[in-house]
Amino acid sequence: MIQVNENFLKLQAGYLFPEIGRRVRAFAAANPNAKIIRLGIGDVTEPLPPAIIQAMHKAVDDMASGETFKGYGPEQGYDFLINAIIENDYKSRGVSLDTDEVFVSDGSKCDTGNFQEILGVANRIAVTDPVYPVYVDTNVMAGRTGEYDQAKSQYGKIVYMPCNADNNFVPALPSEPVDIIYLCYPNNPTGAVATKAELAKWVAWAKANKAIILFDAAYESFISDPAIPHSIYEIDGAKDVAVEFRSYSKTAGFTGLRCAFTVVPKTVKAYTSSGKEVAINPIWSRRHTTKFNGASYISQAAAAAVYSPQGKKEVRQIIDIYMNNAAVIRKSLSALGYSVYGGVNAPYIWLKTPGGLTSWQFFDKLLGEINVVGTPGSGFGPSGEGYFRLSAFGKPENVIEAMERFKKLKF
Amino acid sequence: MIQVNENFLKLQAGYLFPEIGRRVRAFAAANPNAKIIRLGIGDVTEPLPPAIIQAMHKAVDDMASGETFKGYGPEQGYDFLINAIIENDYKSRGVSLDTDEVFVSDGSKCDTGNFQEILGVANRIAVTDPVYPVYVDTNVMAGRTGEYDQAKSQYGKIVYMPCNADNNFVPALPSEPVDIIYLCYPNNPTGAVATKAELAKWVAWAKANKAIILFDAAYESFISDPAIPHSIYEIDGAKDVAVEFRSYSKTAGFTGLRCAFTVVPKTVKAYTSSGKEVAINPIWSRRHTTKFNGASYISQAAAAAVYSPQGKKEVRQIIDIYMNNAAVIRKSLSALGYSVYGGVNAPYIWLKTPGGLTSWQFFDKLLGEINVVGTPGSGFGPSGEGYFRLSAFGKPENVIEAMERFKKLKF
Fold first, then answer.
1. Does 3.40.50.10490 match the CATH number of domain B6-47+312-406?
2. pTM of the complete model beyond 0.95
3. Which end of chain B is more exposed for a tag (fewer CB within 10 A), N or C?
């Protein structure tokens, strides 16, 4: 008799973004004339710049001729892209990588979700709270957690590391043994960043405890402070304990194109139950080549264009648009008396809900009174309760209008 | 201490296609003037036709303008593609499907590899022998098998169903209980097809035994016999027990573009350990939306163009090129006295190695004497020993030359 993977039945039905969508649709149906401004889901809004469009047209033409047609590419990605990644994203910051340490994929959601698969099911995981839900849900599916505790809004067996205004959104090192630590900097949803000194503490802890750090750097291109590391490998020793996830989705507006990559240094080790050391790079390679057939050639050609001189310039201009939005939000809300975090080195602004409102109460108030959509902090974990995320992705004129509307909120 | 998923350590290192690549590279290095003809890996060789190229240029232009830019799409795929799939691939053959039963993805390798994840680890699997290695390897990774037995060339706990000339490459129904049955028709590697009557037997068996059929129809567009079903849902009752995988890779030359889809009828059920019935459609939906972020918009636009009147015509012309290659191979090798199978409703020709040679001996002989590359049957499983796969993908002039060279093989 065919059995279901019962771990999937532990998952909570009310996933954050569908619930937001449901409430927005209901409001729009009841108020057809309302001009809703969406600063909720973190999706880019600017079209792709000319250098990338041009590279894609060329790649499409390559597919039209027998001489340049591309069938199956290497599952790990084309060398032209891997070499550009190593040169521009790593060598430029003093990090050396071999080509077989970089794995091109179709998205960081996939990679951060899939990576746990090559690690034992008995490993204990630690996540920051609030956190990107994919890290948690994929571990629930794998059976690495207990049941969901409705009262605590937490799954059993996961170590949640609270991040709030009291600790400046920097979690304390785990006080109990964990094996897999998910870190995301610049952080989604809080917009916080980690200094070199803070990351060095995590690397040292992971080494001492034979743990592995899964480091999500999907938002690194939004860092404006030159002292903040873009890669965990800027920390000495990180290549022994950390895997890094990068994406073109937010960096270069690729959410609809699908291209990302993961770095798995050959020096990162895991252990068998008998204590034998095993390099995880060849194991991830085996997983990646067996269950994946390479990212689209068109998307890889587009990603390579991000590193051309013109591509770099054009992508930077788009990031500047979003970061100007972030600055407008920060300034406007601060002037209105809100406690505002993030938005300087990240495209997310995290704010304390005013008047003791819960995250969802504030969501309903914003939608109902001023027709602005944001994301309730509690959707990212229990420590997100009382907070709210606004995204800097959006048309500047909409962001300015949203901020004008905030002045009209009634308390 | 971080533990590795030890199931990965059961995997055999010598995966088929890398080993072929190694031998071909070594031969080419030692024989730099040899003109090698590759009929090995099943990768398409014809460039994409005008209707698809045009649709991709338009999709690229959509990404260049704020009005038409596409960010995150629905993880399940755009409605414009899902509707075209239902209308053209299913309704036209008398099969009705709801839009939420079709899941667009970036490849059938991924889908056939990932699907087992939502099913319990204690389920017993059955595969045909020979078989596409991804079905087996992904179950090894998931822990659903025992260790590899070198003497038998088989993993423990898997039920292998031999397919050879004696049973006309149609496996017998399992004589022991199994829960997950992988079937691929038209078959890779044997090129065999299943009649409606044969598939009806499997559907009835699955119903009676509460098993699930994972049906890989990646090669359905190569069917020339009008009596052969293109979809398992042409069989009454299949919607209760079968999931179907489809791909544009071979159908329309998308190996470098990455687009495929999986059909999960809402009537397919699995069970909890306490015997409770659970529909698997919402569980796959949860998996797909949590671990995947949609196929590239450009690739989905290209896939939709496959269904336009012009697209259908152009894609058919390319399939005809490959199937003419298949006919040339069949005819030539039959005339030389080979026992030849497949190649009529599938792009693969499966032949008995002559003179009692093993699959690898014949591989080395072909490469060494006439510089033709094929795929050793034993690489697909123990029952593939003594067989050899030739692919119909290739330039017609190369296929004709390869057949000329076969005349020069010395025995």
1. no
2. yes
3. C
